[in-house]
Amino acid sequence: MGGYQPYGYGGGYHPPAFPVVRLRGLPFNCTDIDIFKFFAGLDIVDVLLVNKNGRFSGEAFVVFAGSMQVEFALQRDRQNMGRRYVEVFRCKRQDYYHAVAAEVNYEGIYDSDFHGSPPPSRAKRFSDKDQMEYTEILKLRGLPFSVKESEIIEFFGDFKIIEGRIHIACRPDGKATGEAYVEFASVDEAKRAMCKDKMTIGSRYVELFPSTPDEARRAKSRSRQ
Question: Bridge-partner residues for 80, per DSSP?
Fold first, then answer.
């Protein structure tokens, strides 16, 4: 990692801004494919459609391959998607991670502990992955939509994955979501594999998050619906 500090706290070093934008005013039937079309020609790494109480809120976060892509994306502010004009504006890495945390929370990881959104302290843990609770399972986001299981095995070549325990998440229509769940031989092995966070598969850099067996099971059942 070469001493990379994600937030530049407590020092003069400030790395390049995380390449993410926020969208507002999206049609309620919007899919990530519509967002790919809206930003045609730009290299998108991840799309997170923001749900509130299980319903799409009309907002989304889009992560790009670099800061120049963000500048081009901002030029599409107030362009139309269908009959609605869409706002595109800058936001912070923390905003994106908090949205990911809220989404994971809704999917049920903390159902027994909390109702509704996690308290800020809980959500904040998602922006500092070292502090998160680990199981043997990691979640991958931002994968190429054409990714194959063999590419994921190669990506984690130095780590022991349990055979047959890679699940590439799909929508009910069979299209890949860009997410996958991988089960490792132990919790420690999963922690060690986090060093692959932000490394690339193909032309896309992949984000890793600690996950749980329950979240992986839910994703698998959604894929089958």
Answer: 85
| Sequence letter at residue 118 | P
C-alpha to C-alpha distance for 167 and 159, rounded to whole angstroms:
17
CA distance 27 to 86: 9
Interatomic CA distance for residues 50 and 117, integer angstroms: 13
Dist. CA 17–CA 72, nearest whole Å: 15
Distance CA 22, CA 64 (A): 11
Phi and psi (nearest 5°) for 89? -145, 160
C-alpha distance from residue 203 to each of 44, 55, 78, 146, 209 (Å): 10, 32, 29, 12, 20
Show the tokens assigned to 36. Answer: 């790919």
pLDDT digits (tens, 9 = 90+) for 73-127: 999 999 999 888 999 999 999 899 888 877 766 544 444 343 444 333 333 334 4
Distances (CA, A) of 183 to 48, 96, 146, 153, 213: 23, 25, 20, 11, 9
